[in-house]
């Protein structure tokens, strides 16, 4: 058997990182970040704690990577770039994709909301979160400014708060929450 190539080693490393992050997401989402240990994550991933530390320096670094990956996924999914002015159709698409993200990435959003509700944990990831939230906020402020809304920043913050509230309610009771109807109401009220 010949030795692995650099590309093979890189691919194996990337796959292992993905496995660890998926395991950590499940463990953190189900047990809470503060109640979860690196040992639990390693056990869930089927690796030793020592091997996990070859990929991530700490539990804090691991959770930051999960949050950054999830927020990057949302940005890619909603296809918005900070320097654009959006139309009503793009606004509707943004809200729609935000709702779809909550539905399709339930464990991520459960972890996200769990983390932001805990001040000591939020302190670990606040800069990472604001790096992603502010471009959305600026796009919405520009959107509402263009529409002539009296206080565009307040309108944008109200929409973001509403989406956060929907996320919290949905992760609490996904089977009974009328997410499609709520999406239509939000679009009607905030468009």
Describe this structure in words.
- By secondary structure, this protein is mainly α.
- The chain has 2 domains: 1-56, Homeodomain-like (Arc Repressor Mutant, subunit A); 64-190, Tetracycline Repressor, domain 2 (Orthogonal Bundle).
- It has helices at 6-31, 38-45, 49-55, 59-78, 88-104, 106-116, 119-146, 152-172, 179-190.
- Helix 5 runs antiparallel to helix 9, helix 6 (106-116) packs across helix 8 (152-172) and helix 7 packs across helix 8 (152-172).
- The chain is elongated.
- The mean pLDDT is 89.
Name the features.
9 helices, mainly alpha, 191 residues, Arc Repressor Mutant, subunit A
Gist?
It is built from nine helices and no strands. The chain is mainly alpha-helical and 191 residues long.
Helix/sheet category: mainly alpha
Oligomer: single chain
Percent range for helical residues? over 70%
What's the total helix number?
A: 9
Blueprint of the fold:
Blueprint (H helix, E strand, L loop, with lengths): L5 H26 L6 H8 L3 H7 L3 H20 L9 H17 L1 H11 L2 H28 L5 H21 L6 H12 L1
Helix pairs in contact: 1-2, 1-4, 1-6, 4-7, 5-8, 5-9, 6-8, 7-8, 8-9
